[in-house]
Structures are given as structure tokens and as C-alpha cells.
Amino acid sequence: MAKRTAKRRKKSPKRSSAEKSFISRIKLRSIRLVESSTELHIVDNAIPQKMRIGVSMAAAMRADGMFAVLVNTEVNAEALKNKESHLKIHSKFECLYETDTVPSEGEARGACGVAVMAMWPYIREFTATVSGRMGLNQLVLPIARINRETGAIEIGE
User: I want to staple 75 with a disulfide (CB 3.0 to 4.6 A). Which of 3, 27, 55, 89 is the partner?
Assistant: First the structure.
């Protein structure tokens, strides 16, 4: 008989009661790519590989009553041998939530974190697909995780 080992359950991220309350009241309606751009420059067959990732987000109530979170991602890759060879992939994804209340600043911040985690698989797939269609090895973004101590989103190496 196989021996089972008990796994310790990780602590949930520290969220205020207002953030928890708002997150439990919203319903995800859609995730969509709203903007993208790419730039590729190769010098002396040096293929971009070394990545830097930038993520920013903004949230707002829309006129139609939906709560929107926009996540901008900028992936920059450069070649190890020739810094002039580079690749940039920019994407902006929108996550729409249905809600019956206007969120406070803290609630909106909490919803942004949830939205980034919901969108990250789409952002990873978009980046891999675009880089592959450019004839390069697919750039695979690291997994995003929530820091259990602070509740902050961390993008691994």
C-alpha cells in the first residue's frame, strides 16, 4: 500500500475584509486581448533569449456597470552575444467583471491581483505563440505566484 504524505496547506494571502468581500461579489465575464505590438531586430544571427518582463495594471468602472482591469505586459528579450538583437512583445489584456457596487481603492487593488492571476495563462500563451510565429524558439514566461506573506504577485525566474 502506498504511503501518503500530508501536505501542509499554505496560508492565504493577507487581504483586507473589504477586498475579500468585493472579490466574492464579482463575476468574471470575459478576458480579451485589446492591444498588441511586436518588434524584432536580429543582428549577425544573434537570437534574442534573455528576457525582462514588465507588468502594469489599471482598474476602472465602465459606463455599462462592468468593472474592468487592464494588464499591460512588456516582454523584452535580447541576445547574449549581441545586444543590438532584440525582441519586444507588448500586450494589453482586459478582464471584465460584473458587479453591483463601485469598489473602493482597496477592493480595486485586490481585484487587480485576482485579474492578473486569471489573465497570466493567456499572457504566457500569447507571448509563446507570437515569438514562435516570428520563427524563434518560443519564449515561455515564468509562472506567476502570489506571495503568501504579502499577497503581492511575483513572477518567477
Answer: 89
- Residue 12 forms part of a structural domain: no
pLDDT digits (tens, 9 = 90+) for 13-22: 455 565 567 7
Domain count of the fold of the chain: 1
Residue 144, all three cell numbers: 506567476
9/81 Cα distance (integer angstroms): 44
The per-residue pLDDT for range 52-62, each reduced to its tens digit, is 999 999 999 99
DSSP string, the chain: -PPP-PPPPPPPP---HHHHHHHHH-EEEEEEEEEEEEEEE-STT----EEEEEEEEEEEE-TTSEEEEEEEEEEEEE-SS-TT-EEEEEEEEEEEEE-SS---HHHHHHHHHHHHHHHHHHHHHHHHHHHHHTTSPPP-PPPEEE-TTT--EEE--
Distance CA 3, CA 14 (A): 33
Residues found in the chain: 157
Nearest to 113 by CA among 52, 71, 84, 67: 71
